[in-house]
Design brief:
292 residues; alpha/beta; Rossmann fold; three-stranded parallel β-sheet; 40% helix; 16% strand; globular; binds nicotinamide-adenine-dinucleotide
Length: 292
């Protein structure tokens, strides 16, 4: 069997068009534009590319964006002053602090300072709590992108055995939480999974991975998941982004696994493009909440 390739790029574009149409409507209704503030500290090349891509995506969707660049030696206190100013500014609807932050900055303190109403990354404890109780204000962008991708490719999670590899606060844990709900971002078929999360301290990881109807991998280790860890016919979602000499690769050994899976996401062009699409959606939702 050669797996169907799940086209994240096309689905992201579809979502971006949907957001663009809704943005045009809210601008017409309110006479105001949604606005995302992006905060970039230091000169990390990958972060600069990410922020630039987010700005361009905003522009295409009709969302305004403002970039705040701070020097690499910025202190936690200086960054908190900016975050608080953005929290108070009614013309800013979403705040994005690009990670990673330089080592001297207390990342937790800065992320916790972002107003939950403008927390379009959905990192704030209040927003994490609301999501885990099944009444989200915002859904975290990458996990939400995975759920949209599955739904729009006709892959239900309801009643399926889903194994998530990785337990980070940004990807693994929120995915587990979303998959467990009674209703997901795209309804009941997009939730109600039987979920297992495995991680670096799981002794029998390959054995558990082989149980999965849907295997989702987010660990940041190139080619980690090999064909022998995948049940024949499983759906494999690769969230990993690893920069190697040969270019960007995922956490899945794509060439081997696509011979055994029924569907698979490529890297690049799979989950990646959805993250930005869902950030635009959250910025629109933040604007709507502020302009009912
Ligand atoms: P992280 O480093 O915060 O977490 C990695 C997780 O993987 C940890 O929970 C750890 O327990 C687990 N892990 C590490 N090594 C393991 C091993 N050998 N066996 C089992 N589990 C192991 O990473 P993250 O932020 O969750 O990101 C994971 C990957 O996803 C990275 O490659 C990152 O670049 C990528 N990512 C992609 C997007 C996107 O837009 N597509 C967004 C966020 C992260």
């Amino acid at each position: 069997m050669t797996a169907r390739v799940l086209d994240g790029k096309a689905i992201a574009l579809q979502i971006r068009h949907e957001v663009q149409a809704e943005v045009a409507k809210v601008i017409e209704r309110t006479g105001k534009s949604p606005c995302l503030a992006a905060v970039l500290v230091g000169e990390d090349p990958a972060s600069q590319v990410y922020v630039r891509n987010k700005e361009l995506a905003c522009q295409k969707a009709g969302i305004s964006s403002q970039l705040f660049r701070l020097a690499a030696e910025t202190t936690t206190e200086e960054l908190l002053v900016l975050v608080n100013r953005l929290n108070e500014d009614p013309s800013i609807h979403g705040i994005l602090v690009q990670l990673p932050l330089p080592k001297q900055i207390d990342e937790r303190k800065v992320l916790d300072a972002v107003s939950p109403a403008k927390d379009v990354d959905a990192f704030a404890p209040e927003n994490v709590g609301l999501m885990s109780q099944g009444r989200p204000r915002f859904l975290p962008c990458t996990p939400h992108g995975v759920m949209q991708l599955l739904h729009r490719e006709g892959i239900a999670t309801e009643g399926k055995e889903v194994v998530v590899i990785g337990r980070s606060d940004i990807v693994g844990k929120p995915l587990v939480s979303m998959l467990l709900q009674k209703s997901g971002p795209c309804g009941e078929s997009n939730a109600n999974a039987t979920v297992t999360c495995v991680h670096s301290r799981t002794p029998n990881l390959p054995e558990i991975a082989r149980r999965a109807d849907i295997l989702i991998v987010a660990i940041g280790k190139a080619h980690f998941v090999t064909a022998d860890m995948v049940k024949p016919g499983a759906v494999v979602i690769d969230v990993g982004i690893n920069r190697l000499g040969e270019g960007i690769v995922g956490d899945v050994d794509y060439a081997g696994v696509r011979e055994i899976a029924s569907a698979i996401t490529p890297v690049p062009g799979g989950v990646g493009p959805l993250t930005i699409a869902m950030l635009l959606r959250n910025t629109l939702e933040a604007f709507r909440a502020a302009n009912p």
